[in-house]
């Protein structure tokens, strides 16, 4: 990690702190079963506007410091040989859209995968106390829409589909048959929102089973 800090325009501890938080986030997501196999990706925005993001292809519950690399705001690795997450552009898009975003999380839970494959372009959450974890929500009575976008292996094209909806998003979004993207001002907030959203998706799945 020391070599990475040579030209950094921020305090020496910031990158190491981000790496530690990303490793811990991966472990937490893994405990819930949200990052099976090599699924999921995790990033933090650093003070100079570059990102610390997971390397492509590793298990996100078993990350070490080498599993995290740096990319610029457009997603290009600072070390050209590094291969960042295949979905790096979705992270860059969130940071470009929301100057307050400090961390982005992507997981592949059973609930987000199954519910999004049931059809429709949104999942509506209403009546749940836990939906207050999302930005601007102060009552269970509100209606929180989580958009669902069709999966696409062309991530730049997927970004263009997601872009017009970002302003209205309160709880992140779901890619059909794939997983969720959630973010927050810092890693703690992003993790709380992910946990809240996944709890609500699990509730929805359970309710549909009961019908
Ligand atoms: C298990 S395949 C999952 C990938 O295709 C992708 O969706 C994913 O979440 C992880 O890709 P990665 O390039 O490791 O960030
Ligand atoms: Zn994915």
TrEMBL record:
Residue ranges of every copy of the Class II aldolase/adducin N-terminal domain listed in the record: 20-205
Reactions the enzyme catalyzes: 5-(methylsulfanyl)-D-ribulose 1-phosphate = 5-methylsulfanyl-2,3-dioxopentyl phosphate + H2O
UniProt record similarity statement: Belongs to the aldolase class II family. MtnB subfamily.
GO molecular function list: methylthioribulose 1-phosphate dehydratase activity
Keyword terms, alphabetized: Amino-acid biosynthesis, Lyase, Metal-binding, Methionine biosynthesis, Zinc
Names of required cofactors: Zn(2+)
Organism expressing this protein natively: Komagataeibacter medellinensis
Pathway as given in its UniProt record: Amino-acid biosynthesis; L-methionine biosynthesis via salvage pathway; L-methionine from S-methyl-5-thio-alpha-D-ribose 1-phosphate: step 2/6
Keyword Lyase carried by entry: yes
A Pfam family hit: Aldolase_II
Protein name, as recorded: Methylthioribulose-1-phosphate dehydratase
Binding sites annotated in the UniProt record for Zn(2+): 106, 108
Superkingdom classification of source: Bacteria
């Amino acid at each position: 990690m020391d070599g990475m800090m040579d030209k950094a325009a921020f305090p020496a501890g910031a990158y190491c702190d981000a790496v530690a938080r990303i490793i811990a986030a991966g472990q937490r997501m893994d405990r819930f079963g949200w990052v099976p196999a090599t699924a999921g990706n995790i990033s933090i925005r650093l003070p100079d506007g570059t990102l610390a993001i997971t390397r492509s292809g590793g298990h996100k519950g078993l990350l070490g410091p080498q599993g995290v690399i740096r990319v610029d705001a457009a997603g290009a690795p600072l070390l050209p040989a590094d291969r960042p997450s295949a979905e790096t552009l979705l992270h860059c898009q969130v940071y470009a859209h929301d100057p307050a975003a400090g961390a982005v999380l992507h997981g592949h839970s059973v609930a987000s995968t199954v519910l999004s494959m049931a059809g429709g372009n949104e999942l509506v959450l209403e009546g749940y106390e836990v939906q207050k974890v999302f930005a601007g929500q102060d009552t269970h009575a509100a209606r929180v829409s989580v958009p669902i976008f069709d999966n696409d292996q062309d991530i730049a094209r997927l970004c263009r589909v997601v872009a017009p909806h970002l302003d209205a998003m309160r709880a992140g979004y779901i890619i059909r048959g794939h997983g969720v993207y959630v973010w927050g001002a810092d890693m703690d907030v992003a993790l709380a929102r992910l946990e809240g959203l996944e709890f609500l998706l699990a509730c929805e799945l359970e309710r549909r089973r009961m019908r």
